[in-house]
Amino acid sequence: VSLVQLLAVGAGMAMTLMLRRHIQVEFLQARFPSPIRRGVGALSGLFIAAFFALMAHYTWRYAEMLAQTGEMLPGLRQPLYPFAYAFAALLALNALYGLYLCLEALRNKERR
Question: Fewest CB within a 10 Å sphere: which of 21, 30, 41, 59?
């Protein structure tokens, strides 16, 4: 159950980003001129992309280690590495969406 929950969280992160449901504090940003708002939006998209890319990289390396050691789920006797690879792929998709947010901010589209 915990491994399926891990995959649900990975997919849910991307969906939450796409639906713009993450908590945002924008009380100062609304007072900035448009070029500064775009810069802040682009920078935050880059931070999102860098964070998720780094997490995807380390999760992928962890999955490789699990595949090499052959670690299995104790009760089901299923290998653990496919779940780690799937979670790494979901994190990489989140990183790509962070890049999309960066480009969207640079193209002067105001986020709602």
Answer: 30
